[in-house]
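User: Can you help me understand a structure? I only have the sequence.
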Amino acid sequence: MPSGPPGRSWLQVIATRLPDGERRLVVLQDVTELRRTEAARREFVANVSHELRTPVAALKALVETLEGGALEDDPEVARDFLQRTHIEVDGLANLVNELLELARAEAGRLELEIEPCLSDNLLQTSVERMRPYAEQMGLDVEVVQNDAGMVVRADARRIGQVLTNLLANAVKFTPPGTH
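Assistant: Let's start by predicting it. Here is the structure, written out as tokens:
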């Protein structure tokens, strides 16, 4: 029985004439799981592309700002931009590690690093990571919290990735000049 959504199955049909010329052999093969796997891989490639686009866009904005004179104009701002660049490079390195972890997850060997985390820190880290991209898009990003100091139990790196993705989408679909 196919394990796909109800009413949705894919079959591969192969028919051939047998040597006697009168009979036919028809082979039906359920390829539902193969199709589902192909769709999951396509979605994975799209997600990886999205994940790469965010830090690359942030790095590009930081480098362009530094090239535009921030290095000479204000050393403090330049140091801040270099620190942000370092954070983005670390983010790309983490993404590579996450791809390796995904392979472990598919093999059934993924381990989460659940620990107490301050929600403020999780949110602020993601906002700071997205700030250069938001500024390039003409947006002001502000953290508004009702539960400052709240502790959550989470895998900080993975939750940070989720928050950064949400912010990247918010920046992408928010009109310039707003916050």
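Now, to help you interpret it: The radius of gyration is 24 Å. The beta strands are 11-17, 24-30, 114-118, 151-155. Let me know which part you'd like to focus on.
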